[in-house]
C-alpha cells in the first residue's frame, strides 16, 4: 500500500513539475495578437470596398467593448461554461467528452475550450491529428499566460466562422439579420451561436430545419444558465426569423477574395512586397458580373449532389479577371477549383491545334476522311482514337465541321500531319510545361487549370494578343505608398488573320448546318448574342469555354475524386455558360463581334464539305 501511495505521490509531483514547465514555457514564448488585427482593405473594380481583412483570415476585428454583455454570457454558457475558471483546457470537460465518445464508439462531443478553439481559429488548420492537437494545447496555454480572459474571448468571437465567407459574430449578425449585435433578440442570438458548430449543417440559408433544431438546443442551454426564462425560451423557439435579403450579395466574392489573399501572401513570401502594417489592395472584381455568374450556378447546380462546378470570367484585351466561382458553394467547400485544380482539357485543346494548322497552310475548308482509323506511330506503336459514341460520318469533312462536331479522327490526322511537336510547342508558348508530344495530345490529354485554359481562349478573344491574367491592379501600404502596380504587358502570340478565322469557326459549334451523325456539340446551348465556343468532355470532366470581344467564360464540372461522369452531367457546364452569357446581355439584342481585316473575306459555304453554297453558312477565309 505504501509503495502505491509513494508511486501516486511521485506521479503527482512529476505531473505538477510538467505542468509548471509547460506553463512556464508558454509564458515565455511570445505570442502576438496585434498583428492579427491589421486591416487590409480590398477594393473592387469600381473602387468600392469589397472586403476588409486581417490578412490571416478574411475578417474584421471588433473590440470586446463593442460586444454586448448578453452576447458574451450566452456564448460562454454554450461553448465553455468554466471559461473563467480554467487555464486553457478544461480537465472536467475533456474527461466527460472522452467518456461519452467511448460509450458511443464515435466522436459525439468535443472537449475544446474557447481558448483552444480561438487558438485553432487564429493559428492552426482544421487538420485532425495528434500533433495538431498538441500544438493547439500549447497555443492555448500561451494565450492564457500572456492575455486576460477578455482578450481571449475577443479573439474567439472575431474568428468564429459562419460559412458564406463570414467571420466574426458582429459580421454574422449583419450578414444573417442585417442588425448590429445589440439589437439581436434571443431567437436571433441563439441561431448565430449555433452556426459555427457546423456552418454547412446549421446555416439557416442552407438547412433551415437543422438550424432550428440547433437553435432550440442553444436556447435550452441559455435557459439552464439563467440567461433567459422558460417563457422567453419558448417564445424564441416559436419566433419566425426573417433573414437579410442582401446576404447573397455579400457571399458572391468569397472565392475571389480568398484568391486575392493567397496571391498577395505569395508575393510577400517571395519578398516582392512588404505589408507589415496593412494596406489597400485594388482588384478587377466586378460585382455585377460575379452576381450573374453566381445566379447561374444557383439555377443550374444541385447543392445536394456531389458534382462540383467552377468557372472564371476574364476580360479580353486586358486580361482582367472579373469573376471567379471556385466551387458550387463557398460554405460547402473553400477549395478554388478554377485556379488550383488541374484536370484534363479534352477537346477544348482543338482550336489551338487548328490555329497551328491554319498557320501551316490549311484553310477552314481543308478536308480529311473521318472514318475509324488506326495510326501507325512508329514500328512498335499504333494509335486508334475513336469518336464520341463511335459515330463517324465516313466521308470527307472540313475543318469547320471537325470543330463543330469535335471530330477526333480529323484532329489526330491534323496533329500527325503537322508533326506532334507543333501543338506541343504551341502549348509551351503559353507556359504549359507538362505538355508532351504524343498522338493523344490532339484530344486534350494534358492537365491544366481552368485559369490556364481560359488564358489560351482569352488570347483568341484578344485577337492573338497574350495578356497575363490578373486579379490585382495595384497595392498600397498603410502610408498609401504604391508597393505594387500591375504592368499590363501584351505580346502578340498569334497571327491576327488566323485567329479571326478560328474565332468565326468556333460559331460552328452552334450551327445546325454542321449536323452529320449527330448534332453540333453546342447546339441548343447558344447564347442570344454571337459567341464562339468549344466544349470538351473526358471520362471525368465536362468543360465549356467561349468568348466574344467583351467576355471569356470558362466552365468546368466534374467530381473531385475524378470518378466517371454520367451523361446527364455533361449539360450542366453548357447551361451555366449559356445562362451566364445571356444574363450579361440582359435587355440587349446584340453584342460586339470581330471585324474582317483587309486580308480576309467572308464566304458562304456548306460547312460539312467546305465548298461554296448559297444555302451554307458564313465563315472567314484568307483572300486568294
Automatic annotation (TrEMBL):
Q: Where in the cell is it found?
A: Cell membrane
Q: Is Transport tagged as a keyword?
A: no
Q: Which GO terms describe its biological process?
A: cell wall organization; peptidoglycan biosynthetic process; proteolysis; regulation of cell shape
The main place the protein resides is: membrane
Reaction catalyzed? [GlcNAc-(1->4)-Mur2Ac(oyl-L-Ala-gamma-D-Glu-L-Lys-D-Ala-D-Ala)](n)-di-trans,octa-cis-undecaprenyl diphosphate + beta-D-GlcNAc-(1->4)-Mur2Ac(oyl-L-Ala-gamma-D-Glu-L-Lys-D-Ala-D-Ala)-di-trans,octa-cis-undecaprenyl diphosphate = [GlcNAc-(1->4)-Mur2Ac(oyl-L-Ala-gamma-D-Glu-L-Lys-D-Ala-D-Ala)](n+1)-di-trans,octa-cis-undecaprenyl diphosphate + di-trans,octa-cis-undecaprenyl diphosphate + H(+); Preferential cleavage: (Ac)2-L-Lys-D-Ala-|-D-Ala. Also transpeptidation of peptidyl-alanyl moieties that are N-acyl substituents of D-alanine
Ranges where the Penicillin-binding protein transpeptidase domain occurs: 310-540
Which GO cellular component terms are attached?
outer membrane-bounded periplasmic space; plasma membrane
Keyword presence, Ion transport: no
Which keywords accompany this UniProt record?
Answer: Carboxypeptidase, Cell membrane, Cell shape, Cell wall biogenesis/degradation, Glycosyltransferase, Hydrolase, Membrane, Multifunctional enzyme, Peptidoglycan synthesis, Protease, Transferase
Show the InterPro entries listed in the entry: Beta-lactam/transpept-like, Glyco_trans_51, Glycosyltr_51/Transpeptidase, Lysozyme-like_dom_sf, PBP_transglycosylase, PCN-bd_Tpept
**Domain Glycosyl transferase family, first and last residues per copy:** 48-222
A molecular function (GO) held by this record is: serine-type D-Ala-D-Ala carboxypeptidase activity
Its domain of life reads Bacteria
Q: Which family does it belong to?
A: In the N-terminal section; belongs to the glycosyltransferase 51 family.
Q: Which PANTHER family match?
A: BINDING PROTEIN TRANSPEPTIDASE, PUTATIVE-RELATED, PENICILLIN-BINDING PROTEIN 1B
* Full protein name: Membrane peptidoglycan carboxypeptidase
Amino acid at each position: 500500500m505504501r509503495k502505491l501511495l509513494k508511486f501516486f505521490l511521485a506521479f503527482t509531483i512529476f505531473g505538477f513539475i510538467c505542468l509548471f514547465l509547460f506553463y512556464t514555457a508558454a509564458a515565455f514564448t511570445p505570442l502576438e495578437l496585434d498583428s492579427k488585427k491589421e486591416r487590409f482593405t480590398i477594393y473592387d473594380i469600381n473602387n468600392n470596398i469589397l472586403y476588409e481583412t486581417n490578412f490571416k483570415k478574411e475578417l474584421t476585428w471588433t473590440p470586446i467593448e463593442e460586444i454586448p454583455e448578453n452576447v458574451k454570457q450566452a456564448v460562454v454558457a454554450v461553448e465553455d461554461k468554466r471559461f473563467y475558471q480554467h487555464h486553457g483546457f478544461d480537465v472536467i470537460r475533456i474527461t466527460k467528452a472522452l467518456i461519452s465518445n467511448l460509450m458511443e464508439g464515435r466522436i459525439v462531443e468535443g472537449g475544446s475550450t474557447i481558448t483552444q478553439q480561438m487558438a485553432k481559429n487564429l493559428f492552426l488548420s482544421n487538420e485532425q491529428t495528434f500533433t495538431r492537437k498538441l500544438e493547439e494545447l500549447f497555443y492555448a496555454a500561451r494565450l492564457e499566460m500572456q492575455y486576460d480572459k477578455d482578450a481571449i474571448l475577443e479573439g474567439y468571437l472575431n474568428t468564429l466562422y459562419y460559412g458564406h465567407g463570414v467571420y466574426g459574430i458582429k459580421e454574422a449578425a449583419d450578414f444573417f439579420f442585417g442588425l448590429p449585435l445589440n439589437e439581436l433578440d434571443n431567437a436571433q442570438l441563439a441561431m448565430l451561436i449555433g452556426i459555427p458548430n457546423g456552418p454547412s449543417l446549421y446555416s439557416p440559408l442552407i438547412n433551415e430545419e437543422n438550424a432550428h433544431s440547433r437553435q432550440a438546443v442553444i436556447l435550452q442551454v441559455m435557459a439552464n444558465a439563467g440567461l433567459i426564462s422558460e417563457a422567453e425560451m419558448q417564445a424564441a423557439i416559436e419566433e419566425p426569423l426573417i433573414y437579410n435579403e442582401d446576404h447573397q450579395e455579400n457571399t458572391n466574392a468569397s472565392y475571389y477574395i480568398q484568391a486575392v489573399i493567397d496571391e498577395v501572401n505569395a508575393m510577400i513570401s517571395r519578398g516582392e512586397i512588404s505589408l507589415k502594417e496593412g494596406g489597400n489592395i485594388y482588384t478587377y472584381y466586378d460585382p455585377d458580373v460575379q452576381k450573374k455568374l453566381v445566379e447561374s450556378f444557383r439555377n443550374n447546380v444541385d447543392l445536394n449532389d456531389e458534382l462540383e462546378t467552377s468557372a472564371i470570367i476574364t476580360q479580353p484585351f486586358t486580361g482582367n479577371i472579373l469573376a471567379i466561382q471556385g466551387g458550387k458553394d463557398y460554405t460547402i467547400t473553400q477549395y478554388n477549383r478554377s485556379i488550383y485544380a488541374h484536370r484534363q482539357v479534352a477537346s477544348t485543346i482543338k482550336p489551338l491545334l487548328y490555329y497551328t494548322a491554319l498557320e501551316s497552310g490549311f484553310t477552314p475548308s481543308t478536308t480529311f476522311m473521318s472514318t475509324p482509323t488506326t495510326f501507325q506511330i512508329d514500328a512498335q506503336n499504333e494509335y486508334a482514337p475513336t469518336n464520341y459514341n463511335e459515330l463517324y460520318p465516313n466521308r470527307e469533312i472540313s475543318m469547320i465541321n471537325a470543330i463543330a462536331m469535335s471530330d477526333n479522327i480529323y484532329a489526330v490526322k491534323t496533329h500527325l500531319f503537322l508533326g506532334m511537336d507543333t501543338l506541343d510547342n504551341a502549348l509551351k508558348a503559353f507556359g504549359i510545361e507538362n505538355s508532351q508530344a504524343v498522338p493523344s495530345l490532339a484530344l486534350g490529354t494534358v492537365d491544366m487549370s481552368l485559369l490556364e485554359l481560359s488564358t489560351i481562349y482569352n488570347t483568341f478573344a484578344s485577337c492573338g494578343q497574350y495578356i497575363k491574367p490578373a486579379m490585382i491592379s495595384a497595392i498600397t501600404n498603410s502610408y498609401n505608398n504604391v508597393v505594387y502596380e500591375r504592368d499590363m504587358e501584351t505580346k502578340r502570340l498569334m497571327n491576327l488573320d488566323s485567329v479571326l478565322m478560328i474565332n468565326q469557326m468556333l460559331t460552328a459549334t452552334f450551327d445546325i448546318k454542321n449536323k452529320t451523325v449527330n448534332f453540333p456539340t453546342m447546339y441548343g446551348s447558344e447564347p442570344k448574342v454571337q459567341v464562339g465556343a468549344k466544349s470538351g468532355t473526358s471520362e471525368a470532366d465536362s468543360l465549356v469555354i467561349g468568348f466574344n470581344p467583351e467576355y471569356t467564360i470558362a466552365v468546368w464540372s466534374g467530381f473531385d475524386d475524378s470518378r466517371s461522369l454520367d451523361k446527364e452531367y455533361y449539360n450542366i457546364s453548357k447551361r451555366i455558360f449559356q445562362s451566364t452569357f445571356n444574363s450579361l446581355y440582359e435587355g440587349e439584342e446584340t453584342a460586339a463581334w470581330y471585324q474582317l481585316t483587309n486580308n480576309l473575306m467572308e464566304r458562304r459555304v456548306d460547312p460539312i464539305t467546305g465548298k461554296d453554297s448559297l444555302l451554307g453558312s458564313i465563315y472567314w477565309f484568307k483572300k486568294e
